[in-house]
């Protein structure tokens, strides 16, 4: 989904900045020049979010809501088209007042339909941002743990941070995805007990 990927990009840019600050030395917002043995990692946040079960479930839920609403809106649009055609066909035989009344009725229903569409789009965007942010926060925590454990100087987010080149980065995306799924499975088992 286009909206989903835009949301991921904006959230991951903020998360990347935070991750860079958290993985540098305490008390230092600016990283010091690195020795030749520095290790840099990369994570594709969008890939993680779209490939973990929680992300897939959120996306599936959003797609179901969109399909259901699209069907509803399509029905309402068909009713609106029918009303418009009736108005056009009867315009010649209706009095001026009746014609104006039908025109106003059509305009009100048209505006209501457009408002309903815009409200739904905002609702979907909000739900998507909420789901994405929830996952991104967990992923950032996992990346911070992994970076500290494996001795990385910095970890960059590749899908939105504008990273063009990094010499010999370690792609942590598959490992982070597996860690996320393992933690989710553990949390699910604990919740069931």
In short:
Helix content is 74%, strand content 5%. The protein is mainly alpha-helical and 193 residues long. It has a single domain, classed as Skp domain (Protein Binding, DinI Protein, Chain A).
Task: Give structural notes.
- The protein is mainly alpha-helical and 193 residues long.
- It has helices spanning 2-23, 45-51, 53-90, 96-150, 173-192; strands spanning 40-43, 154-157, 170-171.
- Strands 2-1-3 form a 3-stranded parallel β-sheet.
- The longest helix has 55 residues, at 96-150.
- The chain is elongated, with a radius of gyration of 25 Å.
- The model is unreliable at 11-35 (pLDDT under 50).
Strands, helices and their partners?
Blueprint: H1 2-23, E1 40-43, H2 45-51, H3 53-90, H4 96-150, E2 154-157, E3 170-171, H5 173-192
Helix pairs in contact: 1-4, 2-3, 2-5, 3-4, 4-5
- Enumerate the strands of the largest sheet in spatial order, edge to edge or round the barrel: 2-1-3
Which oligomeric state applies?
single chain
How far apart the termini lie comes to 36 Å
Q: Outline, from the CA principal axes?
A: elongated
The main β sheet shows up as: 3 strands, parallel
Question: How much is the average pLDDT?
Answer: 81
Instruction: Find the structural class using helix and strand composition.
Output: mainly alpha
Q: Can you tell me the CATH architecture?
A: 2-Layer Sandwich
Q: Which sequence of SSEs, written as H and E, runs from N to C?
A: HEHHHEEH
CATH-assigned fold name: Protein Binding, DinI Protein, Chain A
CATH superfamily: Skp domain
How many beta strands in the DSSP annotation?
Answer: 3
* Regions with little confidence, pLDDT below 50 for 5+ residues: 11-35
CATH class: Alpha Beta
| Helical residues, percent | over 70%
* Total number of distinct structural domains: 1
Helix tally equals 5
What share of residues are in beta strands? 5-15%
Question: What is the CA-atom radius of gyration, in angstroms?
Answer: 25 Å
